[in-house]
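Trying the structure run again after the queue cleared.
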Amino acid sequence: MPRKYFSFLSLLALCALSGTVLSATADKAKDERVVKDGMLVSLEYTLKSPDGKLVETNKGKEPLKYIQGQKMMIPGLEKELTGMKVGAEKHITVKPEDGYGKINPQAVQEVPREKIPENALKVGAVLAAKSPEGRVVPMTVREIKEKTVVMDLNHPMAGKTLVFDVKVVDIQPPPPPAAPAKPSAPAQPAKPADPAQKK
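Done. Tokens:
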């Protein structure tokens, strides 16, 4: 009897140990997920100006999700995120040329005043316009003249050094591309009840 009891205890210990090993392996696999091209990354971030002024943050909100290597993120930030693991945090400074680019003087244009909505006729107002390629381009009102309005098509963050504090919340393989919807088959007419059938 004692021997059987001992064997049972050994079996329990072995099961518990293998459970720990399996759990450790799962944790290790999770820890080995890194930010690399093609991965779906969930990010918590705070963006500040070099003087420490808060520009925006998503702390306490939904994390920002993007696919690494798909140019969904500014180049300087994407480069610095490469190789980070889940839970990792980093302080990143991005220069204008690696962010939203330098200010392009030719992107400042005058447009007739009547083409701007009345409620947007104030310096600093940001409007959205569509480029010939269909991209949404932000335009900022820089100056209001008697008959024209000076619009700046540079990104509002162009020419600025950006300071990020980031935390990688999660890393997953990207979702599979959605399959094109197949046309549904025409509905079959309902068969009339057989009067000969009795319940």
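The longest helix spans residues 2-31. Worth checking whether this holds up in the mutant runs.
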